[in-house]
Design goal:
The chain is built from 19 helices and 13 strands. The strands form 2 sheets. It has a 7-stranded parallel beta sheet with strand order 3-2-1-4-5-6-7, sandwiched between helices. The protein folds into 3 domains: 203 residues, Glycogen Phosphorylase B (Rossmann fold, 3-Layer(aba) Sandwich), CATH 3.40.50; 150 residues, Rossmann fold, CATH 3.40.50.2000; 45 residues. The protein is globular, with a radius of gyration of 23 Å. Helices cover 48% and strands 11% of the residues. It is of the alpha/beta class and 464 residues long. The N and C termini lie far apart (78 Å).
């Protein structure tokens, strides 16, 4: 089996490395394509060395640009290449422009497409990543979902159960593999920081860094937090310049971008992390480090319900209040099921099981794309591959997944005590049954109201 793995930004390489390893261990021929979406010679060398990742087999050199230009460059460079490689399947990861570009080219070429991290949804269409995620899922043949809530998202959007594979989180695979090496680094002491006594800040989203009014509201919060514990902020020169130009508080220390191992070391030893990054929300959950996300939404709600993450938005008072609360009473450390370091093995097993060695499968040229997502619901008693993974127990029903996804940790000063109580209550059969019945009643009312809107009501003739 020949597999082409595509990556374009540093988080992509963190996710693709364990997948490549698992496929190669199973005997597949794996080719790595680097689109060059984000490319810095020095940082790339450090990143590849930290991960133990071999040099890419192909480098497309797309470079930076607007979303349209960047996507176009990757597509035009990848199209002739995919025709030469004769791949059995192309694997794309994450939600960057390279992911979308290579997914579209692959689908139009009739080659099987697998999306790692499928089903993530923030509900925020102003995020370019949200568009990339949704379109990539729509044209993919294999949807490798990291958590039950992402499976629920895909099922709600009408995807076939046979396409959906609950595998766990590949980023966690890399984290757990390299955690010992990372924690042995001396970056914390080199910066003169005390383990467990500082805060780590990451800001990279244009909505935060490139918007002067938003950035101006975040900096006063950072200034007040810096009075509670020192803050360190790794930043690229462009972001660092914007931060300093906006009046960066003296208690916030900017450092150059860190390599993978150094950054994990800073995360693991931090007292808390403030971020707008999706990947950091996941890593801090596994590390058991409190995370405050400077956004109004997240595509990773499982880090809220089963992790150490909390959404605090961009309001300075709300951010500072959340920091004080976390410092006084950190959330309990816990990690979602299947975030166990074996997600990549589950992905490899699914691909080997379907494609096999030497037997190449192709999507019929006349098959409409939408037809691939409209198969009937599986019959009772048949296996549902969306929830049966590598001998694991079946995941909860769609209804229970939705209940878990929509539940939230309580806010306010009583949050610390309420977290454990909430989790215990959620595990109670009585409470769970009550919530199910309430949800069914609410759903029934909604369906009735919808039918009244859609189906004309026939009224009898007025009495004579």
């Amino acid at each position: 089996m020949r597999v082409v793995c595509v990556a374009g930004a540093r988080p992509n390489f963190v996710k693709v490395k364990p997948v490549m390893d698992a496929l190669e261990e199973g005997g597949a021929e794996v080719l790595l394509v680097h689109t060059g979406q984000h490319y810095d010679p020095v940082m790339s060398d450090i990143f590849f060395e930290d991960l133990g990742l071999r040099r890419p087999d192909y480098f497309l050199g797309a470079g930076s640009g607007s979303h349209a230009i960047q996507t176009c460059r990757v597509m035009t460079a990848f199209e002739p290449l995919i025709g030469q490689l004769a791949a059995d399947v192309v694997v794309v990861v994450g939600d960057v422009n390279s992911t979308l570009a290579c997914a579209l080219v692959t689908a139009k070429s009739g080659v099987l497409l697998a999306h790692v991290e499928a089903g993530l949804r923030s509900g925020d269409w102003s995020m370019p990543e949200e568009v990339n995620r949704i379109v990539t899922d729509r044209v993919s043949d294999y949807l490798f979902a990291p958590s039950p809530d992402t499976v629920a998202n895909l099922q709600a959007e009408g995807y076939r159960n046979g396409q959906i594979h609950l595998v766990g989180n590949v980023m966690v695979d890399t984290l757990l593999t390299n955690l010992g090496r990372a924690t042995s680094r001396d970056i914390v002491s080199q910066l003169g920081l005390e383990p467990g006594q500082y805060g780590l800040v990451t800001l990279h989203r244009p909505a935060n860094v490139d918007n002067p009014s938003v950035l101006g509201s975040l900096l006063p919060a950072l200034a007040e937090i810096a009075g509670l514990c020192p803050l360190v902020l790794p930043a690229h020169p462009r972001a660092a310049g914007r931060l300093r130009g906006a009046g960066l508080p003296s208690g916030v220390r900017i450092i150059p971008p860190a390599g993978y191992l150094d950054f994990v070391a800073l995360e693991a030893s931090a007292r808390l992390v403030l971020t707008d990054s999706g990947g950091v929300q996941e890593e801090t959950t596994v590390l058991g480090v409190p995370c405050l996300t400077l956004r109004d939404n997240t595509e990773r709600p499982i880090t809220l319900t089963e992790g150490t993450n909390r959404l605090v938005g961009r309001d300075p008072a709300r951010i500072v209040a959340a920091v004080r609360e976390v410092l006084a009473c950190p959330p309990p450390a816990r990690a979602p099921a299947l975030w166990d370091g074996r997600a990549s093995q589950r992905i490899a097993a699914a691909l080997f099981g379907d494609i096999g060695d030497g037997e190449r499968l192709r999507r019929p040229a006349s098959q409409p794309i939408l037809a691939r997502h409209s198969s009937p619901r599986p019959q009772p008693g048949t296996a549902d591959r969306a929830v049966h993974v590598a001998g694991q127990r079946a995941a909860p029903s769609r209804l229970l997944d939705l209940l878990r996804q929509t539940s939230r940790m309580p806010a306010g000063t009583a949050a610390c005590a309420a977290r454990d109580t909430t989790m215990a209550t959620a595990q109670s059969r009585t409470s769970c049954t009550l919530r199910i019945w309430l949800t069914m009643i609410s759903t029934t009312r909604y369906v009735i109201e919808m039918l009244h809107d859609v189906i004309p009501v026939r009224r009898g003739a007025p009495a004579a």
